[in-house]
Amino acid sequence: MTKGKIPPSASSFFINLIGGLSYILAANITFELNPQADVFTVSIVSVTAALVPIICGELLFLNVHKRPGVGLLETPLEKNPERLQTKLLGYYGSLALMMSFYIFIPLYSNDEFFIPALSYFMPLLMLYIVGGAVYFSEMDCRLENPYDSYWHFGNFLSGRWADTDRAMVVSHVKSIALRACYIPMMLSYFSIYISTLMKGHNEFLAANLAVSSDFTWYGVLKLIMLAYFFLGAMDILFGLIGYFMTFRVLDSHIRSTDPTLIGWLVCLICYYPFWELFMISVFFQDFYSNPEWHEWFKSTPVLMLIWGTLAIVFMCTESLTTLTFGIRFSNLTYRGVITAGLFRFTKHPQYVSKMFNRFFWYVPILSLNGAFGSLQTMIMFAGICFIYYLRARTEENHLSRYPEYVEYANWINENGIFRFLGKYFPFLVYSEEKAKAGKLF
């Protein structure tokens, strides 16, 4: 094992963990004080409880606003109204572009999946309309280089194309499209998880399982399921936070988006509607229709407890990897290298955890159709693993533009807990040359 030093992480695992614990505490207090609270209220409380300690911790202890990549001046420049107007035009034009997705694409108004997200749109839109003006008014005169992507996009919208950096505009539009795609999706996922949590929490209390003098395996199962969905909600929570918190002053802005079609394709197919309405129905229906772990082991309680605990462990590691990003999570983007938490032990710990999580939840080694059915579901599981392998590789190819990521990936080659696999599967070993050439194997 080499003694090289791992590059510093853009986020702090400890600070983000405080945010995660704050979410769990706040959600439980809300459930206790008001069992009839609506999903919207619990969601807002959860997001706020997680965000406040993270933002305070990053500003007070990490001094993220002083990082070189942020480019803040100690002494503000004189305000430039014309530049600010152009930048605000770019900002509000970006909001209009995002809203056009939801107005003109029928999926968002006709699909029941997105109904929970619609309840957040108007409050969020008002917040961003007012908050954006304040943010840009204060930030514009404090930046070393105030001519950012919003300014270039504003120039583009106003027809001043000679002064527009087209590459920056293209990158900006891609980041807007990315957030427009994922924000309503994450809002709906989070609302569904919170709704499930509220129902499960109330049922748990109603059955008096926590204080019952009679031990029941049903109570253990309910507790495992409750913990699983709490962790799942935390996973979605930090994903949701990441798509909203793209602020330069917090060093959480988007540096770049994946430039390849294959990168976008293998990422988007893993989410609604592509995964549920296409991938599952066409390729993985037998895998996802297989009985879940608790149905297989309900007649053997001890095995159910062991298997359920393993499912919880990998749901926990999956959630903790998203938590490690803090306010910097978003697919297909680079927002600073993450080397803290589980990322210190392996690249792509989220995908590794996700695959183990799926294995223990859906138990592909068992099938109602016997040995042949088990073989089918294992092949399907291998197909899902392959999709996430492609996601990992396309991410590495994108992030290899940045020397700090190359340094991190090479460090993991020598120090990662799975480094021994490279001896048997050489294609798993990171290669800067192959990554920069866009190779997948």
Quick one: how many beta strands?
2
Mean pLDDT comes to 93
- Silhouette: globular
Helical content stands at: 55-70%
Number of helices: 17
Based on CA atoms alone, the radius of gyration comes out at 23 Å
Sheet with the most strands: spatial strand order: 1-2
Instruction: Specify the structural class.
Output: mainly alpha
Give a quick account of the main beta sheet: strands, pairing sense, barrel closure: 2 strands, antiparallel
Work out the strand percent. Answer: under 5%
Protein described:
The chain has a two-stranded antiparallel sheet. Residues 208-213 have low confidence and may be disordered. It has 441 residues and is mainly alpha-helical. The longest helix is centred in the middle third of the chain and has 41 residues, at 166-206. Helix 1 packs antiparallel against helix 2 (39-62). The two termini are 25 Å apart. The protein is built from 17 helices and two strands. It has one domain (13-436). It has helices spanning 13-33, 39-62, 81-104, 106-110, 115-139, 149-157, 166-206, 217-244, 261-268, 274-288, 293-296, 301-325, 349-362, 370-399, 403-415, 421-424, 432-436; strands at 256-257, 333-334.
Short characterization:
With 441 residues, the protein is mainly alpha-helical. It has helices at residues 13-33, 39-62, 81-104, 106-110, 115-139, 149-157, 166-206, 217-244, 261-268, 274-288, 293-296, 301-325, 349-362, 370-399, 403-415, 421-424, 432-436; strands at 256-257, 333-334. It has one domain (13-436).
Which features characterize this protein?
441 residues; mainly alpha; 17 helices; globular
